[in-house]
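Hi support team,

I submitted a single chain yesterday and got back a structure, but I'm not sure I'm reading the token output correctly. Could someone confirm the output below corresponds to the sequence I sent? I've pasted both exactly as they appear in my results page.

Thanks,
R.
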Amino acid sequence: MAEKTIYPWQKSALELGPVLGFFVVYMMVKDETYTIFGREYDGFIVVTAGFVPVLLVSIAIIWKLTGKLSRMQIVTAVLVIVFGGLTVIFNNDAFFKMKTTIVYGLFAVLLGIGLLRGQSYLAYVMEDLMPLAHDGWMVLTRRLTGMFAAMAVANEAVWRTMSTEFWVKFETFALPAALFAFFMLQGSLFEQDDTSE
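Hi R., thanks for writing in. Yes, this is the structure output for that exact sequence:
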């Protein structure tokens, strides 16, 4: 399928919509318990069960509108299906909370493998979006590898020591804000690259 253009607001809405929807619905039902087929589920489990198909529909719409999916979107979809399914099947929210640790940990490991080989896998995925020379990509990849590792550790610490409500807020707002702030602080890399040209 040929690649198509999509308005940035459409892409943002499709990527952030399911996550924000999860947060809003969870906050509405967090204290509720539901009996389904004779088994009791708390609000978190029920919202997780609804989140999985909503996210998949969102990703399918992105694919339909753009004609492509990023590797990150595919990996995220697979992990959400697997860990969301395990959460519902075993009625245990730990699986879904661990998903975030595994996603960030996996990204850190993959980028780290590339660094050990003298390559920036980040450039392979994002070089069309950011103008950086090889050295700049290597620096950014090293920093992002450390960032992803730190986020994985932070998520693991939070879900194991804090309430589910705190974790949902942390997952929805704190981690994305930290990643956004990280990229905003990398401006000097682009300035150096512009100077070197």
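A quick pointer for reading it: The beta strands are 33-36, 39-42. Let us know if anything else looks off.

Best,
Support desk
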